[in-house]
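Lecture notes, structural biology module. Today: joint structure prediction for complexes of two components.
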Amino acid sequence: MKMKLIATALAAAVTAAPAMADLVFPSLSYRTGPYAAGGIPFADGYADYFTLLNERDGGIGGEKIQMPECETAYNTEKGVECYESTKGMGSLVYQPLSTGITYQLIPKVTADGIPMLTSGLGRTSAKNGAVFPWVFNFPANYWDGASVAVKHILDQEGGDISGKKIALVYHNSAYGKEPIRTLEELSKKHGYELSLIPVDHPGQEQKSQWLQIRRDRPDYVIMYGWGVMNQVAIQEAVNIRFPMDKFIGIWWSGSENDVKPAGDGANGYKALTFHNLGSDYPLYDDLKAHVFDKGLAAGAGDQHGTAIYNRGLYAAMLVAEAAKTAQEIHGTSQITPAMMRDGMEALEMTEEKMTALGLPKFGPEFTVSCENHGGNGFAAIGQWDASAGEWKLITDYMQSDQDIVQPLIEADSMAYADEAGITPACN
Amino acid sequence: MPDQLIYAMEVFLNGLMAGVLYALVALGFVLIYKASGIFNYAQGVMALFAALTLVGIMEGQVPFSHLINAMFGTEIHHFGWHLPALVSILLTMAVMVLLAWAVNKLIFNHLVNQEPIILFMATIGLAYFMEGFGDIMWGADIKKLDVGLPQGINTAIDETTYGWFGYGFFIDNLDIVATVIAAILVIALVIFSQYTKQGRAMRAVADDHQAALSVGISLNFIWVMVWSLAGFVALVAGIMWGTKSGVQFSLSLIALKALPVLMLGGFTSIPGAIVGGLLIGVGEKLFEFSVGPLIGGATENWFAYVLALLFLVFRPQGLFGEKIIERV
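The predicted structure, tokenised, for the full assembly:
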């Protein structure tokens, strides 16, 4: 009897684990907790893209895709637990949608030899692949975001912003503080006056901050927020009648969730983005035919076409393309995490490739190399149209000021290398 | 008048308004603690649950629709109605009464005579359960709550103060409404507890459970009533905070704003919750205005607790709390 039980348990364990030949892309998602509204669309988009590849193409290079999902609730400890519990499944790459989890996983993925992609989040200086060989953050990072926001302001002001006032309203955390140095360097270059306005977690009450903005009357406000902080900030901006077209959020402050609670008042609010918006792409036709209509959509299936759902799709597309590149480089469909890393390091995203994938003009073109794990630092500006209830891209993709951003990345990554005893190297 | 003084006056007024919103959350804690000695950790989640239920009922959302659709392959999400705010509030209140009954029947009736720490731990469990239950019932997306409350700058105050000082004060219309509602709520609660039979019974239970039981007061009824009242207060708090930020799961974190208010005002006093809220609101806002810029800002969260701790040193029972003397 005992043997029978053990055999049954073993059989169950074997069937539950992915087959060895499968390509495993774990999803460290958060569908619960205070940040679930942002975590759900990303997790849905990420899952739906892989489901599409399985259903339409039979996976990648003939290998089926497995996507074990682990709930982190945006909690760093749970995120690490999820990593530990899934890394043994042959996981090829991790994409934690959390800067806190990313920081904890950097030494772990480096030791375990599993690549990690943190598009638009995490440690910015991980762009230096000579110091962070297993971490990637293409196509854009927080410092690119700050620089592109200032570039947009320059465009709005005819190229001269000397003497203008720019306020940074930021989540008082490692994430929120990321753009400060970049904005300070840019203020020296362009002569604007920068004021820093921190908001403590979770950001439910921001009266003091917005009274200060009302008194100081900055010409522009840039926001690095997440979760409830975004909705409250936008509502408070509406309340004090701050012009919405001069209020620019980072991509984590630019979802439908952030603007809808403020209703029509949020009309004209802008946010950065490193991918396109809406659902008017051929890929969505494929998703409808192979995923949605078959009842295979992840979650409740009610997030399609939202900004963060598109980010999930884009994140999955990037690693799927990297996996294809890895298969080509190594001449095998059954790739290992080390091969996956090679694929990510040789990734080249062109307009031609994105069009072939059914996502024309969906993201910026970029190339990755050992020295550059972060792409070319392009981002665009989206604007909320409250009457249509949708985000619209209002600029082309603009490159961040590399003269400012690159030296900062170099300095920060080298400081990390010194601290961690890493000898930077590219083969 | 110097600009800084004018700004400080504006900050002071906004601090009072913010304090009222903190006090609304703290009131729910006070009601339950006063009547049953339970520190209800789930009060913030009750505000969230009430607000979620209100939006769900108003918008005709089918509860547990995700679960139903996943189990039966259906595609039902809405009943197709949009109910008036008042009707929805009444129906939500009925749900909160039902919740109060269920909490007492399923949890606290089994924990009679247990240590306060056990009861506190039970409310922690209740908070996590309700958060997950609310998620399954209504979904985790952020919902816009519009029960017709005015929002945005009060132009009359703006223009009047501009006429006086050459600078118009910003006061949010929603904060003014919250102040009026809080005042009505406190007066109603005081009248209820002082002048009605049920209110007196509630106070008797608060003073001595055993004695109240011996004169024929039903503890079950009183506890359900108190939890229902706390549910009503949670609903009011949920409406105010939900209107500001949309109804979302972070709403449960507003309980963190109530803790320093309780420490300062006392756990057993309804006026204490209001005065405590006002002191915390004004204190944190003025500190952020005057000292914040010198030390990097974002001082409000921790300063509220520092202020409360300072009061605790001199009055451990809070400003209006009952002094507990235990003879050994």
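Point to remember: Chain B has one domain: 3-74+84-314.
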